[in-house]
Structures are given as C-alpha cells and as structure tokens.
Amino acid sequence: MKKLKFASWIVVASWIGCVPVRAEQALTGVWLSDTSQQVIPDPQFSGLTWRHDELLMLADQSATPEMRMKLFRFNPASGQLNAPSLPITLSKQVREGCFGDYLANSPDLEALTWDRVDDTTLITVTEDASRAQLSPTCARKFEQTNSTKYPTLLLRITVDKALTRAEITAVRPVQFPLEAQVGDQPNDGIEGLAIDNLQNLYLSLEKDLSGKPALFKTRLTADFWAK
Fold first, then answer.
1. How many whole angstroms separate alpha carbon 73 and alpha carbon 162?
2. Residues pairing with 65 in the sheet
3. How far is CA 100 from the centre of its chain?
4. What is the pLDDT of residues 166-212, one digit of tens each?
5. Positive or negative, the Cα torsion across 42, 167, 149, 199?
6. Listed residue (88, 72, 4) closest to 32, CA to CA
7. Distance between CA 158 and CA 168 in Å, rounded?
8. Do 133 and 149 contact (CB within 8 A), yes or no?
9. Strands (E), 135-213
C-alpha cells in the first residue's frame, strides 16, 4: 500500500489580470425519510456512495442497534428510501474466519464505495475495534499492522443485481507502510474510500501520529480478495 502526499486544502480560482474571481453556490438539503415518509432519527450514516442513480448508505457502530449492519438506498432528489433497509449478513467462510466474532457483533463500519468492474461488489472498511480480540493464532498471523493492534479490515459486500441480498463474503486486513507512522489510534482510522477508473482504491486516514490526515492507495487486482 502506498501513501500519497496531498494538501489539506484546495483553491480554485479564475484570474482576470491579477484579480481573483470567486463563485458561490447556494445548497439546500432535505431530511432523510423512510418508505413511509417518516424522518429517520439520528441515523449516524458513516458510509455514502452514488451508484446507479441512487445513494447507498450504511451506519457506524454509534448508530442505534436497528440501524447497524444494514444497507440503505435513498432517492437523492427526495431523500426518501427507495426500498426497506437491507440487512448485511456474513458468509459462512467469513463468520468462521479470524474476524468473524467482531463482524458479527456491530462492527464499526466507515465509508462505502463499489467496484467499477463488478457493480455487485461494494467495499467498506472498519475503524474502531478496540473492544475486539483475536485468537492467539490469528493475532500472530496479523500482528504486523503498523497501526492498531486489531487490524483495519477492508470488507467485500456482495449484492445481487436487484439489491435484495447483501453479504460480507471476503475480508482483507490492512498493513500500513511502517514509515507512514499511522500509530495505534483505534478511533482515528480510515474514514473514506474511493475508486478511480483504473481500479485504484484510495483510503483516507483521519490522522496519523503527528495529527495529520493521510491518503493511501492500493490496487484492486483480480486476486485482491484472495490475498
């Protein structure tokens, strides 16, 4: 995984002679509502992506229990759910793997994106796993995280074309570059994911040991989820 250098601010300006011209855009919003047009209280959505003309969202560990481990599909114009929320289940292989206990008990999901080559693959990532423990065998296998004691996990969520099923079918623990100095900060980890047209997956870190944000890049190869 590569660490990318980036500025924490962006300035866009048009110049006429030496005079900068700034443009302003007024934004309005709507309250998110369910299929009965009732406002959704305190949803704590931490993952958001645009896919096939709708917004897909998921909540983090701080959400109320009924909001956790579910996929939500919203109409971006109305803010209303296009369908009832979809529970996210675990495959047998994932449930019986090293990270099954944590993922079966309200994992802290952050960010959401989808594979541009296979649109039935959604990708999310875990952040705070400070309450979780690995078995001694798994702990030895994944101890070199160069970050938190419990690894950050990239999760593959497999859905069907009609979005009637969502299942975590693969887990990829993240090993950060040692020189990045990410630090053992369980609740200051990866907060955002994005994919470009070349199948590069970008992970945005809230802050490293020096308190600064960081951006990492890894490649979504054909065998990515098998490694």
1. 12
2. none
3. 18
4. 999 999 999 999 999 999 999 999 999 999 999 999 999 999 999 99
5. negative
6. 72
7. 6
8. no
9. 153-159, 166-173, 190-195, 200-205
For the whole prediction, is pTM greater than 0.85?
yes
Tell me the C-alpha distance between 168 and 37, whole Å.
Answer: 29
Name the residue among 175, 191, 213 with its Cα closest to residue 126. 191
Give the model's pLDDT for residue 149.
Answer: 95
For 5-54, give the DSSP string.
Answer: ---S-----EEETTEEE-----------B-TTSPBPPS--EEEEEEETTE
pLDDT in tens, 59-72: 999 999 999 999 99
How far is residue 78 from each of residues 37, 48, 55, 82, 196, measured CA to CA in Å?
A: 10, 16, 11, 10, 28
Phi, psi of 103 (to 5 degrees): -70, -20
Cβ-contact 165, 136 below 8 angstroms: no
> What is the distance, to the nearest Å, from the Cα of residue 88 to the centroid of all Cα atoms in its chain?
14
Q: How far is CA 222 from CA 85, 98, 115, 153, 216, in A?
A: 30, 23, 11, 18, 19
pLDDT tens digit sequence for 83-117: 999 999 999 999 999 999 999 998 999 999 999 99
Phi, psi of 4 (to 5 degrees): -105, 145
In degrees and rounded to multiples of 5, residue 95 shows phi and psi of -60, -35
Q: How far is CA 196 from the centre of its chain?
A: 15
Cα angle value 195/226/96 (rounded, 5°): 110
